[in-house]
Amino acid sequence: MKLLGRLTSINVRKVMWTAAQLDLDLYREDWGAGFRSPQEAGYLAMNPNGLIPVLVDGDFTLWESNTICRYLATQRYATTLLPTEARARARVEQWMDWQAGELNNSWRVAFMALVRGQPATPEAIAAGVASWNRHMGMLEAQLARTGAHVCGDDFTLADIVLGLSTQRWKNAPIERVELPAVQAWMQRLGSRPGFAEFVDNGMP
C-alpha cells in the first residue's frame, strides 16, 4: 500500500500515525503543494476533489483521511482502534466525524489567516479563535468524563484524529483557554509509537 500526500498535511499525518499504531509499513509519495499536483488528470481520476491524501492498495483507491484510517484498522483487524461492537464503534466514529466537521470548521478562518496568511478581518479572526476554543472545551469535557481517552479506557482512532487537531490548536499563535484534561491526555499520547514523528514534530 502507498499513500499519496505531503507530510506537512495534517490529514496525511493522521494516516501515517494510524499506520505506526498498526506497525504497518505504509509507503508515502509526495503530492500536494511544492510537489506533484493533485490536479493532474491521473490523480483526479483517483480523487475528483483534487485533495490529499489518497490511499492506493493494489487496484483499490480511497480518499478522505478518516475513512482511510478506518480502512487500515479494519484491514489489520485492529478492534481496539476501531471496535466491532455496534455502539462502541459508533462512539468512535461519532468523535471522528465531529473532528472532521465541527472541530475543523471551527478553526478554519483563524488558522488560515494567522498561519497560512489568508486575508481575514480582525473580527473574523477573533470569532474564529473563540469558536476554536469553545469546541476544544467540548473535548475537554469528554476527556474529563472518561479520565483516559476520548471514548473511554482504550486508545482508538478518535484519539488519533483528535490528537492531530489538538496539536494544531496547541501550536497555533492564538490565546488558548486552559484545558487540563486535554493537556494530560496529550501527555499520555506522547508515549504512543509515531507520536514524535507525526504529531509532535513542529508542523502546524
UniProtKB/TrEMBL annotation:
Molecular functions (GO terms): glutathione transferase activity
UniProt keyword list: Transferase
Coiled coil: none
SUPFAM superfamilies listed in its UniProt record: GST C-terminal domain-like (SSF47616), Thioredoxin-like (SSF52833)
Domain GST C-terminal: from-to ranges: 85-204
Residue ranges of domain GST N-terminal in the record: 1-80
Protein name in UniProt: Glutathione S-transferase
Organism: Roseateles saccharophilus
